[in-house]
Write a structure and sequence with these properties.
The chain is an all-alpha fold and about 80 residues long. The chain has a domain of about 45 residues. The protein contains three helices and no strands. The mean pLDDT is about 90.
Length: about 80
Amino acid sequence: MPAAAWFTLIVSAVIVAITAVGLLRVIFHLRAIRSTLVATTGGVQAIAQLTSTVPARLTSVNASLKPVRDFCETV
């Protein structure tokens, strides 16, 4: 094989190796971001649960406050 062919093969191998290392770094960064997003999603779900609306069991309270709401609408 001529020297130019060997040089081409070596340069190609170096380029492929550098690209593979870059892609591995991207994979590791994406895994770190995924774990952070999972933790953030869990926190958001906990906040959503703690700040949810009053359950439907309290419909009698709403019915009792209807006269107050009606009065406030007339003001």
